[in-house]
Amino acid sequence: MKTTINVDLKSLNLDTKKVYYWQVIVNGNKEVSQSIDFQVLSDDRLNEIMQTTNKSELYASSNAELKGLLLAVIFESNHMYYEANSKYAQLLKEIGNSGLIKMNYAAFSLRLGQTEKSKSIMEKN
Question: Where are the domains of the chain?
Answer without folding.
Answer: 42-123
